[in-house]
Specification:
Length: 695
């Protein structure tokens, strides 16, 4: 039997009649059917057949959009510009990443000076024929003799670590497998890394990750000889990682995955056979070292400081009780802190945009840095080097590199990309609106100058709202065709993020999670009320936790939106913690098993479980990937199957399943452009736009 419905293309879409099973779970006396449980087996032949059928339907629909090919051409043209990272100095040489434009992966170059001819140091494009192997981390040994680098294959979170001789650029025999959430941190002639035991065959991308361990690998030895440095069998669902201070005096050990913060331990490597000392153990707060001198350690923490502060400790008295405050908690949140030229570069977020201040190491203010406009900034430089680079971007400014003169508090342009785009034709500004409970919520709007508030403007509404992650201004060439054709890009600063500190974060977690959805829905209502647009002209988009956001919004208020694109979303809130590292999200979400109250709350908003039969849902394009081992594709599979079953009316409810791709990081440019073309053409088509694509 097949399900059919009409579409804007005036052709009925025939969806697969997805098989249903009799699986029922019982939570605190409540029976919850899970008829599409079989789709959780993403490696079965039956699931593979379903994926093929769904992709065929989606591909056929997208192929019928008359401007999809011209849009892809325009996106390709816009993406074809040179992208260069800030240089970073290691052992007297400068390194930087560069992409000529359409290369699948950026290439790492080296030069003897900033004016010397760059040479290719490492080209990830040569690691695969299709660009699906990405360089994910890089770490030089203290003597500069070796570099350890990690790669990801097909977008997976699994990492493989290799070692290369920096002088000859020859690869050594060293090869680390099954590392995860880890790079390499050098000490002497080896490095520390974190890994899991090899997963069971067939469960590499969906099995629950347990018993994270820290190892030490000595160059020239096989992985089986690596020394186990730390494991905690009493807590298999935690992360453990290690980092060595730049002077190789201190080994830090981080324990996380329970609560919103981390425990911190240290070991004095100058003392033979020394043991780890516990510095801080409260998982509700974050504790991270930012610099180590011969006698002191500098930390950034939100312990008793919801907007973070900088603290200092003596190496011989490193416990939290002995830390002293250097830079206190302020109204604006500290988003990052680095030591460059023996000065503290502290970046504050004020209303979700960057405001950097430079301090002396004694905590006194040296100077504030005035930025080119409202935007986001980062700094690159060494602790003992006076050379510093500033990286700046905004909604209308492609990522640009400046040389920053610390002594004179001035900067000059070092490298700016040349994009086929005139920023002077556009404007970006921030508005504030009240959410359902009266909380003031910020939102950035970007659009062409002279836009009329006549209720007809297409909106691309984007948000995240979780895990203390801040959304600040950034540039994306993929937005340009939408903006060129009269669209408005709206980025909402939702509770659950980190833009206003820990209180803002907590206000969007667990039993407060509905606040995030209310904020997002409130943004759409504000745009309608202010006569920017109408419901049929609003597309909502979000990825990962943002995919959950879109799923919740479209199930709670389906009439409010003209299109929905939940990307790699967390859609099954009752079972998310049973796959890969899903258990780590419990600090934000809670779990269906911890209490009846928490189960009831999750069940009330879980996107999968709140799709209702015979409802008219907005045109929807669900996106996921076969190698996504962060948010496993089963979330999207089950949601799409249920949506197709429930949706009444002609609106398309499609799923796009990428192959040899993961959660998003490291995706080759060719796949990025294809996905952008599919996403934007689906949105523009269903918002009834008639775009024209020109230079």
């Amino acid at each position: 039997m097949l399900l059919s419905c009409g579409s804007k293309q005036n052709k009925p879409i025939t969806y697969p009649q997805t098989k249903k099973v009799d699986t029922v779970d019982v939570y605190f006396g409540t029976e919850v059917p899970d008829p599409y449980r079989w789709l959780e087996d993403d490696r079965s032949a039956e699931t593979a057949e379903w994926v093929t059928l769904e992709n065929e339907i989606t591909d056929a629909y997208l192929a019928e959009i008359p401007f999809r090919k011209p849009l892809l051409d325009r996106l390709t043209e816009l993406a074809n510009y040179e992208k260069v990272s800030a240089p970073f100095k290691k052992h007297g040489k400068y390194y930087f990443y560069k992409n000529d434009g359409l290369q699948n992966q950026s290439i790492l170059y080296v030069q003897d000076s900033l004016k010397a001819e760059p040479k290719v140091f490492l080209d990830p494009n040569k690691l695969s024929t299709d660009g699906t192997v990405a360089l994910t981390s890089l770490s030089f040994s203290k003597d500069g003799k070796y570099v350890a680098y990690s790669v990801s294959r097909s977008g997976s979170d699994w990492r493989e670590i290799y070692v290369m001789d920096t002088a000859t650029r020859t690869l050594l025999d060293d090869h680390i497998e099954w590392a995860k959430f880890s790079g390499a941190s050098w000490q002497g002639d080896g490095f520390y890394y974190s890994a899991y035991d090899a997963p069971a065959k067939g469960a590499e991308f969906s099995g629950k990750n347990e018993n994270h361990k820290i190892y030490y690998h000595k160059v020239g030895t096989p992985q089986v000889k690596d020394e186990l440095i730390y494991e905690n069998k009493n807590h298999p669902l935690r992360f453990y990682s290690a980092s060595v201070s730049e002077n190789e005096n201190i080994l830090f050990l981080y324990e996380s995955g329970e609560g919103r913060g981390n425990a911190l331990f240290m070991k004095d490597l100058r003392k033979p056979n020394s043991e780890f000392q516990e510095l801080a153990s409260d998982f509700e707060y974050s504790y991270y070292p930012i610099d180590v001198t011969d006698t002191q350690i500098y930390f950034i923490t939100n312990y008793e400081a919801p907007n973070y502060r900088i603290m200092r400790a003596e190496i011989n008295k490193p416990q939290l009780k002995d830390w002293t405050e250097l830079i206190g908690n302020k109204e604006t949140v500290i988003s990052s802190a680095d030591v460059i030229d023996n000065k503290l570069f502290v970046n504050y977020d004020k209303d979700a945009s960057s405001h950097p201040i430079i301090y002396n190491l004694d905590g006194t203010i040296l100077q504030e840095v005035s930025l080119p406009s409202v935007g986001s900034v980062g700094f690159s430089g060494d602790k003992d080097d006076k050379e510093c680079f500033m990286v700046f971007t905004s909604f209308t400014t492609p990522t640009s590199i400046y040389q920053y003169d610390i002594a004179n508090n001035s900067y000059e342009l070092f490298n700016a990309p040349k994009v086929e785009f005139n920023p002077e034709e556009y404007e970006s500004y921030q508005v504030f609106f009240e959410s359902k409970d009266g909380t003031k919520i910020p939102m950035f709007l970007t659009h062409k100058k002279g836009l009329k508030k006549d209720g007809t403007n297409p909106i691309y509404l984007y948000g995240y709202g979780g895990f203390n992650i801040s959304l600040t201004p950034s540039f994306s060439a993929s937005r340009i065709p939408f903006l060129e054709n009269g669209g408005i890009y709206a980025q909402v600063t939702l509770r659950g993020g980190g833009e206003y500190g820990e209180a803002w974060h907590v206000a969007g977690t667990k039993m407060n999670k509905q606040n995030v959805f209310d904020d997002f829905i409130g943004a759409a209502e504000y745009l309608i009320k202010e006569n920017f647009t109408t419901p049929k002209k609003i597309a909502i988009v979000g990825g990962s936790n943002g995919g959950l956001l879109v799923g919740a919004a479209m199930t709670q208020r389906p009439e409010l939106f003209g299109a929905a694109v939940p990307q790699v979303g967390v859609m099954d809130m009752l079972r998310y913690h049973k796959f890969t590292i899903g258990w780590n999200w419990a600090s934000d979400y809670g779990t269906s098993e911890e209490s009846k109250e928490m189960f009831d709350y999750l069940y009330a908003y879980s996107p999968l479980h709140n799709l209702k039969p015979s409802k008219n849902y907005p045109p929807t394009l669900v996106t996921t990937a076969d190698h996504d081992d962060r948010v496993v594709p089963a979330h999207s599979f089950k949601f799409a199957a249920r949506l197709q079953e429930c949706n009444e009316g002609p609106n398309p409810t499609l799923i796009r399943i990428d192959t040899n791709a993961g959660h998003g990081a490291g995706k080759p440019m060719s796949k990025v452009l294809e996905e952008q073309a599919d996403t934007y053409s689906f949105i523009m088509y269903n918002l009834n736009m008639n775009p024209v694509f020109t230079k």
